[in-house]
Amino acid sequence: MKDEKLYGGVLVKAVGILDILRDAKLPLTTTEIAKKTAMTKSTTSKLLTTMQMLNLVSRDQVSQRFDIGARLIGYGNHAISNYSFEKVLEPYLKQLHELTGQTIHVGIEQDDKMIYIVKKEAKVAVTLKSRVGDQVPLYSSAMGKAVLAEKSDEEITAYVHRTHLVQWTDKTRTTLEDLMSDIHAIRQEGVAFDKEENEPGIYCTGVAFTSRGHTYGAVSVSVPVYYLDDIKKKEIIQALLEIKKVMHQKI
Description:
With 251 residues, this protein is an alpha+beta fold. Helix content is 46%, strand content 20%.
């Protein structure tokens, strides 16, 4: 999961321009694009001319400002129709499973719960009772808390007020204050924990995948507490943070 070297400098620069135009609220001038990409105005102008000929960008004849070109609509529609969040995640799940040997879940948020859409069983003789399609609460699961941490404090407060926080174990967090304490730690560290809060004897670590304001889902690693030590904890955290970084670039 190391960063790969990119080849094709012109292509990389062109994609950089497209990313800037995508995120801009209004069409941009050549000078504005050059400044945002840290390229010279001459290089930027040449790239934009080529991209315009390929219909990758469009230029208003009056304002001389650039925007995303119509050619990308077809690419976008094709990508959306074939897009699957778990399909993009799958090769990294395989690496994570090989590394940890533990139970891995992938979930998406639905109706204030996390729904398991993928489960990879532990390689060791430990079987969790979860199944694909099962639901777990946001407030007591690692994946759920990771997803909550992507929301605003106001959204989390509203969620708690409309949710009955069940005490699943003696370690379940059932107050807004305790949950917000966890949320603040997750936002700082990038990972969420379920420390036997959903099921006795099971410790889970999870991350959510969010890009441009949309949370696609989350993944967690579940480990029996008797098997877990500080070294394994750090190994799992590091692996999850690497996957989170890669997925942020891909979704």
